[in-house]
Amino acid sequence: MENTMISLKHLVKKFGNQTVLKDVNLDVLSGEIVGLIGPSGAGKSTVIKTTLGMEVTDGGIATVFDKTMPNRQLLANIGYMAQTDALYDALSGKENLIFYAKMKGLKKSELNNEIEHVASVVDLKDDLNKRVSGYSGGMMRRLSLAIALLGNPKLLILDEPTVGIDPALRRQIWKELSSIRDEGRSILITTHVMDEAELCDRVALLLDGKVMAFDKPDVLKMQYKVDSIEDVFLKAEGVE
Ligand SMILES: Nc1ncnc2c1ncn2[C@@H]1O[C@H](COP(=O)(O)OP(=O)(O)OP(=O)(O)O)[C@@H](O)[C@H]1O
Predict the structure, then answer these.
(1) Given CA atoms 121, 32, 233, 19 in this order, what sign does their dihedral have?
(2) Count of domains observed in the chain
(3) Quick count: other Cβ atoms within 10 Å of Cβ 14?
(4) Does 217 fall in a domain?
(5) Residue 70 domain boundaries
(6) Spatial distance between the Cα atoms of 174 and 177, rounded to a whole number of angstroms
(7) What separation in Å is there between the alpha carbon of 167 and the centre of ligand 1?
(8) 67 backbone dihedrals φ, ψ, rounded to 5°
(9) Which atom of ligand 1 is nearest to the CA of 83?
(10) Cα distance between residue 239 and residue 233, in whole Å
């Protein structure tokens, strides 16, 4: 059965005089990957932060697992990866993973297997004992993604998880995301990579503070009479 994991209804968010989100409607069902795309500054991260209750809305309702956000208890069931990495520089990759695993309430007996699994998904197994201060930007993104994956959360909310990650690893990460979806778990993901948008079950296009289009990639391509999601994006923006 399809459950609604995220429901955003008439979401409004203002920063001073700027109304970033005017009327955002979006839902994420169980067992699907929803991609949120839109030009830089369109408000994708703001949608995510209001969904998580990290930003207070100026109107509308955000519910996650049928509960109104913000709700601290729900956060344990959500794997969130922000655009900026929240890592402890002085600790190793492994120590960071252990820290977050404990915060998420993982049992001691699960710890090693779980860390090994998430580290291999992002190809960090050989670098786990290095201090994060010596990591490259891409390695930090990979560690942040590994942290979000810890504990098999029912819902993953990923803000541009593959920035700075090379194509082979990106493919491996998408394989993992697809198998998470196949387990009936859900993913809301923002991306600038249009090839990744093609891999989502549904794509929402955020423009002028609204979700201008929201459907399966193939349906969007048909609606806009184009061959790729990149062209959907460009046509919606009015770029010929
Ligand atoms: N805390 C804040 N205070 C003031 N303005 C903000 C704040 N957060 C976001 N904004 C503004 O809201 C708008 C949307 O920002 P947001 O980061 O949500 O966009 P985005 O679509 O995620 O962009 P990008 O693709 O570049 O990451 C921008 O104009 C940004 O300057």
Answers:
(1) negative
(2) 1
(3) 14
(4) yes
(5) 4-87+155-237
(6) 5
(7) 27
(8) -115, 140
(9) 27
(10) 9
DSSP H helical ranges for 183-216:
194-198
Q: ipTM higher than 0.85? A: yes
* Ligand 1 within 6 A of CB of 50: no
- Best mutation site among 12, 13, 15 for ligand 1 pocket (most ligand atoms within 8 Å of CB): 15
For the chain (length 240 residues), average pLDDT per consecutive 10? 87 96 97 95 95 93 88 84 89 96 89 94 94 93 94 94 88 92 96 92 96 96 93 84
Local structure of 234: helix, strand or coil = helix
Dihedral of the alpha carbons of 131, 180, 5, 11, in degrees to the nearest 10? 60
Residue 156 near residue 188, CB atoms below 8 Å: yes
* Distance from C-alpha of 77 to C-alpha of 155, rounded to nearest angstrom: 7
Residue 73: which CATH number?
A: 3.40.50.300
Q: What is the CA radius of gyration of the chain?
A: 18
Residue 47 lies in a domain: yes
Q: Tell me if residue 131 falls in helix, strand or coil.
A: strand
For residue 94, give the amino acid letter.
K
- List the alpha helices (DSSP H) in 84-227: 93-103, 108-121, 137-149, 167-182, 194-198, 217-224
Q: Is residue 117 part of a domain?
A: no
Is 48 part of any domain? yes
